[in-house]
Structures are given as C-alpha cells and as structure tokens.
Amino acid sequence: MDEVVVIIGAGPAGLCAAYALQRWGLRLNTHHRYSGQPGRPIPRQIGAFPTRDQYVAYLVDYAADLGLPISFGVRATRIERTDGGGWLVHTDQGTVRRRHAIVATGSDRAPHLPAWPGRDHFLGELIHAGAFRHANDYMDRRVPIVGAGNSAFDIGNYLSRVPLGPSWISAHRGPTVAPQTLWGIPTHPCWSGPADSRSGPRIA
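Now predict its structure.
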C-alpha cells in the first residue's frame, strides 16, 4: 500500500496538517499574531485583525506555496478501515486508498438551527450566523440575535453601524466581554498566552 496520507479538508487545520507532514513532524501553533499558519506568518502590514478577504487570500497563497496536490470541490462521503490496516475514503469523484488518513473538516462546518416551537410559522427571515453577509441588508429592520458567542457579537458589531429598528441579543447568561484593544495593544495575547518568545507584549 502507498505510504501516502490523504487529508480531508483544506481549511486552516487541513493546510496546517499538510505543512507538518511535509516537514515530517507536527507542531501545535495556534497563536502567531494570532492566526498564522506554520512556516508563514501573516504579513505584518495586514494589521492585528485581518479581514475575511485578507485571511482567505493568505490561505490561498499558503496552499499554493505548499506545492501539494489539493483537489477542491471533492466531497468525501465515507471513510472506512481496510483489512490491510489502511483507509478507504469514498468521495463523489471516486475512492482513495491510503495507509493514513486525517480528517480536518472542522467541528463547526454544518450550521445548526434549533427546532424552536413555532419556528415554522415565523414570518420573518431566520438565518444561521454563517449565512450573514452584509449589515446593510438589515437596515431599518428589527433584528434579534440569539446567542452571545463570538459570532453573535461580531454580527452585533456590524449591525451597530447601520440604522436598525429595535434590536437585541438574547442569551442564557451574560458572557465575558473584553475590549479588542487596550491602550492600542491587542488584548488577544492576554487570553491565549504567547506562542513563543517573539509573540509581542503582554498585559498583566
């Protein structure tokens, strides 16, 4: 059997695994200011908090630099153990047989909307946070946001910049809210801890 690894998923985790395997070693790197991939820091000129499009462009460049065969648009439908100790990955474009397999599709890939009572009779627009695109689409509308996680606060931040009708956030209990920056210094390292000795200032 071919000593090749198939990686299911080409997002940050999948590309990170590809880099680590290419270097014949796996190192956890979750904090380089603060979303960079191993071997390629996010360019400093982008700033502390890259936009979505900047991060997507960064991942595209990273994938190209790896020089590995990445098949986009392929849907993995099933994975099973073989008698010889390897794996069969069934896709919509055929079956791949490899000795090793890594699943890096992400735990939050599939959006989930709870089956709230009365949901089928709601006459307004009901979307998952993953379907939110532009705050201008909600101008002068009443917008309740259900949940108080990162996505909820990000969406609330965007919506606060356009005129809305009465809007609110619904949460089971109050979250811990920290400023994005403090005295001009990003607060993220305070919660994450440094990746290495070059990770920048910390606030005690």
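Helices lie at 12-22, 52-66, 150-159, 188-192.
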